[in-house]
């Protein structure tokens, strides 16, 4: 299957997965292996001073030598907080420049604050970051982010962690049709068919966390998502048949039926 | 010396030699761990931990990667 290229690096998998909300690091690793994802998101947080410094570290379970680590700015509500967090991430990951920018608008919806997102993107691109950016499903602002120099635009399909699926396929199509950088649907996918629908729309990839981590069986759902993303991509490339709203079209021959004469 | 580390105020005994970021990281048991350090809002690159001296009242952030989406 053709590969996904983001910021000059190619990936076989079009599924990007988060690492939050799992029971433990072993389950995280098993689910990510089943998902086939090569790129995984992580959050940046204060270390617990005074607690056992030898407790396991996420990056031991997911070594940067095996996965592309995508540090995020989850929990940031201003451009300044997001930029500061990603500078720390770059230091933490030895100069790694590929990041996920998200600047949130409010804690109830976790909807992006687009003015702050645009501001942060400008600063980060100038500082040499390769920015994959969580954004509203607004084709105009997605284009602005592309023009700033973001490496990928990542519109939400529905609210983060909601599992509500693809609520506005029309807006996503407008973004996809206009974009010259990869479009990754980020947030809202609930189950495998949602991921397939996103890919059938022509998205370059899907990013998800809760749909896998909060599934009844996260490892099995990760495997389902792996297949759904591949199936959706192949269906998009194959091109679906036209919809016939008011007439059927038999698949079997209409001639040679027995007993007709 | 009083330092504000990850939002907590902590006292460290006065010492003859400079108290560096590297010494602080070691004292916290974090030497060799995957961490990043910020001092008063600016990144302290790992290569400079040994030569960056701390001053009383410094605001230090020490971060790690955790699970997130």
TrEMBL record, chain A:
<feature type="binding site">
    <location>
        <begin position="209"/>
        <end position="210"/>
    </location>
    <ligand>
        <name>1-deoxy-D-xylulose 5-phosphate</name>
    </ligand>
</feature>
<dbReference type="GO" id="GO:0005737">
    <property type="term" value="C:cytoplasm"/>
</dbReference>
<comment type="similarity">
    <text>Belongs to the ThiG family.</text>
</comment>
<keyword id="KW-0704">Schiff base</keyword>
<keyword id="KW-0963">Cytoplasm</keyword>
<feature type="binding site">
    <location>
        <position position="161"/>
    </location>
    <ligand>
        <name>1-deoxy-D-xylulose 5-phosphate</name>
    </ligand>
</feature>
<comment type="function">
    <text>Catalyzes the rearrangement of 1-deoxy-D-xylulose 5-phosphate (DXP) to produce the thiazole phosphate moiety of thiamine. Sulfur is provided by the thiocarboxylate moiety of the carrier protein ThiS. In vitro, sulfur can be provided by H(2)S.</text>
</comment>
<dbReference type="InterPro" id="IPR033983">
    <property type="entry name" value="Thiazole_synthase_ThiG"/>
</dbReference>
<dbReference type="InterPro" id="IPR013785">
    <property type="entry name" value="Aldolase_TIM"/>
</dbReference>
<comment type="pathway">
    <text>Cofactor biosynthesis; thiamine diphosphate biosynthesis.</text>
</comment>
<dbReference type="InterPro" id="IPR008867">
    <property type="entry name" value="ThiG"/>
</dbReference>
<keyword id="KW-0784">Thiamine biosynthesis</keyword>
<protein>
    <recommendedName>
        <fullName>Thiazole synthase</fullName>
        <ecNumber>2.8.1.10</ecNumber>
    </recommendedName>
</protein>
<feature type="domain" description="Thiazole synthase ThiG">
    <location>
        <begin position="5"/>
        <end position="253"/>
    </location>
</feature>
<comment type="subunit">
    <text>Homotetramer. Forms heterodimers with either ThiH or ThiS.</text>
</comment>
<feature type="active site" description="Schiff-base intermediate with DXP">
    <location>
        <position position="100"/>
    </location>
</feature>
<keyword id="KW-0808">Transferase</keyword>
<feature type="binding site">
    <location>
        <begin position="187"/>
        <end position="188"/>
    </location>
    <ligand>
        <name>1-deoxy-D-xylulose 5-phosphate</name>
    </ligand>
</feature>
<dbReference type="GO" id="GO:0009229">
    <property type="term" value="P:thiamine diphosphate biosynthetic process"/>
</dbReference>
<dbReference type="Pfam" id="PF05690">
    <property type="entry name" value="ThiG"/>
</dbReference>
<dbReference type="GO" id="GO:1990107">
    <property type="term" value="F:thiazole synthase activity"/>
</dbReference>
TrEMBL record, chain B:
<dbReference type="Pfam" id="PF02597">
    <property type="entry name" value="ThiS"/>
</dbReference>
<dbReference type="InterPro" id="IPR010035">
    <property type="entry name" value="Thi_S"/>
</dbReference>
<protein>
    <submittedName>
        <fullName>Sulfur carrier protein</fullName>
    </submittedName>
</protein>
<dbReference type="InterPro" id="IPR003749">
    <property type="entry name" value="ThiS/MoaD-like"/>
</dbReference>
<dbReference type="InterPro" id="IPR012675">
    <property type="entry name" value="Beta-grasp_dom_sf"/>
</dbReference>
<dbReference type="InterPro" id="IPR016155">
    <property type="entry name" value="Mopterin_synth/thiamin_S_b"/>
</dbReference>
């Amino acid at each position: 299957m053709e590969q996904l290229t983001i910021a000059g690096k190619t990936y076989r998998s079009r599924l990007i997965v988060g690492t939050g909300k799992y029971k433990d690091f072993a389950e995280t690793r098993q689910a990510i292996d089943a998902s086939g994802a090569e790129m995984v998101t992580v959050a940046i947080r204060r270390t617990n001073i005074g607690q056992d410094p030898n407790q396991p570290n996420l990056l031991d379970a997911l070594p940067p030598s095996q996965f592309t680590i995508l540090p995020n700015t989850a929990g940031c509500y201003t451009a300044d907080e997001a930029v500061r967090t990603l500078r720390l991430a770059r230091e933490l990951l030895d100069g790694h420049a590929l990041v996920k920018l998200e600047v949130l608008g409010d804690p109830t919806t976790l909807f992006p604050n687009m003015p702050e997102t645009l501001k942060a993107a400008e600063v980060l691109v100038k500082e040499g970051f390769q920015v994959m950016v969580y954004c509203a499903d607004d084709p105009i602002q997605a284009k602005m982010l592309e023009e700033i120099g973001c490496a990928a635009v990542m519109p939400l399909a529905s609210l983060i962690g909601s599992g509500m699926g693809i609520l506005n396929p029309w807006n996503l199509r407008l973004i996809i049709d206009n974009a010259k950088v990869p479009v990754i649907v980020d947030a809202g996918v609930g189950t495998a068919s949602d991921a397939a629908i996103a890919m059938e729309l022509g998205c370059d990839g899907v990013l998800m966390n809760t749909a896998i981590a909060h599934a009844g069986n996260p490892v099995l759902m990760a495997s389902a998502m792996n297949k759904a993303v591949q199936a959706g991509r192949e269906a998009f490339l194959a091109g679906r048949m036209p919809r016939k709203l008011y007439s059927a079209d038999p698949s079997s021959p209409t001639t040679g039926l027995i007993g007709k004469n | 010396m009083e330092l504000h580390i990850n939002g907590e105020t902590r006292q460290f005994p006065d010492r003859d030699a400079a108290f560096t970021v590297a010494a602080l990281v070691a004292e916290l048991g974090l030497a060799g761990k995957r961490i990043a350090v910020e001092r008063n809002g600016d990144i302290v690159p790992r290569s400079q931990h040994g030569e960056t001296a701390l001053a009383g009242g410094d605001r230090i952030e020490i971060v790690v990667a955790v699970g997130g989406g």
